[in-house]
Amino acid sequence: MKSRWWILVAALAVPLAAQTAKNTCVECHAALDGALAKPAQLFDRDIHKKNGFSCVDCHGGDPSTEDPTKSMNRARGFVGKISRRDAPARCGRCHSDANLMHRFEPQQRVDQLAQYRTSVHGKRLAAGDTRVANCVDCHSVHDIRAVRDAESPVHPLRLPETCARCHADAEHMKGYKIPTDQFEKYRKSVHWDALAKRGDLSAPSCATCHGNHGAAPPGVASVARVCGSCHVVFENLFAKSPHRKPFDSMGLAGCVVCHSNHEIAPPTVAMVGTAPCAVCLNCHGEGDKGYQAAARMRSRIDELEGSLKRADSILRQAESSGMEVSQPLLDLGAGNENLVKAKVDLHSFDPAMVDTAVSKGLEIGQAAQRAGEKAMVERDYRRKGLALSLVTIAVTMAGLWLAVREIDRRRNHT
Amino acid sequence: MLKRVTDWLEDRTGFDSVREFLKHKTVPIHSATVWYYFGGITLFLFVIQVLTGMLLLLYYRPTPGEAFESVQFIVTQVQFGWLVRSIHSWSANLMVLSALIHMFSVFFLKAYRQPRELTWLSGMVLLFLALMFGFSGYLLPWNTLAFFATKVGTDMAGVIPGVGHFVLRFLRGGEEVTGATLTRFFGFHVAVLPGLTTVLLLFHLALVQKWGMSSHQPPGTTVPTMPFFPNFVLRELVGWYGALAVLGSLAALFPWELGTKADPFAAAPRGIHPEWYFLAVFYTLKLIPSKILVFDGEVVGILVFGLGALGWMLMPFWDRRSGGEERHRLLTGLGVFVIAYLVVFSALGYWR
């Protein structure tokens, strides 16, 4: 029993001591001007401080004394400003330690440093290029926030802008021989719309395709796999398609050939076919097999789209006339599903496969069209019936009124 | 031969006395005679309700799993089912409208005064029953709007001090609107309310025959009259045909919507509101603050409406003058105010 008391006292005393422990780093730096004061001002918001870490955990030294010769004594382990080259390893001391990290974030990975070393950034840093990004360039320094914090520079909504700070800076990127328009293009893409306009945090941004800590451009052979990590069905269809082998042999990067990479526009059926805007014409010419297949797939999809639109239009017209057409409208939903399926099946580049979905959709569209026409015939029948009834009623009313007047006239005479 | 049959019938029924009564019955003629027709039009629409209701009963199934589907079957598969259902719904609304016009015309003509107090009282109860018909019938198609409107309506009944919770449970057949509520409302709609209405309607008509129609003229004035049969009846028939034309046009051009099937687990749709004749009360209750001094605002609102309706119903006992000839500016002003309130608040309730 006695020993338990000691445990309780110790448990209470440790955090108390941590809270009241002297931190002369913050005290002195807060009193300084300019850049030397900034770390002390920012650190209040840092996730490390919230988890009980302080300056010495990264910078070393002795925060218990106010004497700078002692507190910043290199013999006592003071490191001072951490060089850009050393920063990843310094962060990795804790972030690669599973035992330590799991005390604070049980789900967090601890392979960031290992991944970083495989990345273009990590390799170039190792080779002595200190202008490449290291941990602090993306995560910030002294005011580091959790990734899920909306103010963190690596929060999904802010990540593209963070990457663009370097990659859209032509001056900074000079010498690396890569374009600097990725962010500008990405902002025109369907992925940016999903992320920034619809606030879909799962929408792809830079790190989704390029990786985060192991950032590297996907190779030509792996582009379809990168896209396929979300667009699984499309990847499978493309892998079995007649495009796969020639693309591989020509060194063409799968999906990117038609859809582009950063500037991925919302895909429309106009991309397919033999019209001037169709991407098929980039490779195929009039008369070749691919040209004929593109023309056929496009015409079949147009046929289904037109059929479903006409059916929808007549059903909506019937509905607005008060006809009960909820069931055919519901059935038409299955027709639209077949249209979506046909557009997906396009990625097999096999007209027969597209035909199957189109035929099923057409059957539904035609049935809905017939239901709509029947409803409109019924509506007209009702209106004619009403007109006839109204004429009959009007004639009867007129006859009754004449009878009333005649009766009144006779009564007045008598 | 025919004479022998009629004599035989006369011996056993005494219908001659009715014929004699009709032969001598007259209707006053004056500038407001036109308002007399609305009582008959309300009766005509009630008869249409009964007939179309009986036809709907051939197919309707009052269970949560089948109610919506059976109405859908009626309007899509049954020959002229759409017309029967649409006429039933539209005539219900027109009947309430016609009954309201009839009530206000009686009010402004001061035809409720002595000796017609019981005619007024029975008419008011009939109007209340018509509203109950509407409320119970609204739920029967078991669609989303009806489900949530019933929930809101029965919630309102639940706040009546003292008996509220009992009334709520009685109406719903439990704490929530469920299949038990549907079965119960169906019972009210096709058995309880028609039974009560028929008895009361006969009583109301008998009183109308006994006291005749109010002449709306000072005593001693010779009021011109016309024979009830055939002069008034034929005119009334013209009115009925007119009502039939309006009803048929509404039913054919604007068939009553079916909506989507009720889902008790779904969130209430936006802009939900009850039938138009409850809109003014509904909107007023929405405007009342949740607390008035220490009292619950909704309770105060419902009590005020309840007392107002009771006061209106007991009008013949406030206004003790006899006959319709004597003017009463205050009561006429009250009637105009009530109509303006109902029109404005119903419109606000619909559009806001």
Characterise the protein shown here.
The complex is a heterodimer of chains A (414) and B (352). Chain A is built from 23 helices and no strands. The model of chain A is unreliable at 6-19 (pLDDT under 50). Helix content of chain A is 61%, strand content 0%. Among the domains of chain A are: 218-266, no CATH class; 289-383. The N and C termini of chain A lie far apart (123 Å). Chain B has 352 residues and is mainly α. Classes of the chains: A mainly alpha (414), B mainly alpha (352). The interface between A and B is medium-sized, with 22 and 26 residues.
Class derived from helix and strand content of chain B? mainly alpha
CATH topology of chain B: Cytochrome Bc1 Complex, Chain C
In total, the number of strands of chain B is 4
Average pLDDT of chain A, rounded to a whole number, is 90
Gyration radius from CA atoms of chain A, angstroms: 36 Å
Q: Please tell me what the overall shape of chain A is.
A: elongated
Q: Portion of residues in helices of chain B?
A: 55-70%
Q: Ends of chain B: how far apart?
A: 69 Å
Number of helices of chain B: 14
Biggest sheet of chain A: strands, sense, closure? none
| Main β sheet profile of chain B | 2 strands, antiparallel
Q: What is the helix content of chain A? A: 55-70%
Terminal-residue CA separation of chain A? 123 Å
What's the average pLDDT of chain B? 91
User: Which series of helices and strands of chain A comes N to C?
Assistant: HHHHHHHHHHHHHHHHHHHHHHH
Low-confidence stretches of chain B: none
